[in-house]
Specification:
Largest sheet: none
Protein name: Arginine N-methyltransferase 1
Order of helices and strands: H
Shape: rod-shaped
GO molecular function: methyltransferase activity
Region (Disordered): 1-27
Keywords: Methyltransferase, Transferase
Oligomer: single chain
Distance between the termini: 40 Å
Organism: Fusarium albosuccineum
Helix content: over 70%
Length: 27
């Protein structure tokens, strides 16, 4: 179970980092 939670947290971090990168490009 803990392994799945780790994957979810990593996925959320990736999404957040991707969103930040996109914001930089659009600006």
């Amino acid at each position: 179970m803990s392994g799945d939670k780790m994957e979810v947290e990593l996925a959320e971090e990736k999404m957040n980092s991707m969103e930040h990168s996109e914001q930089h490009y659009f600006k």
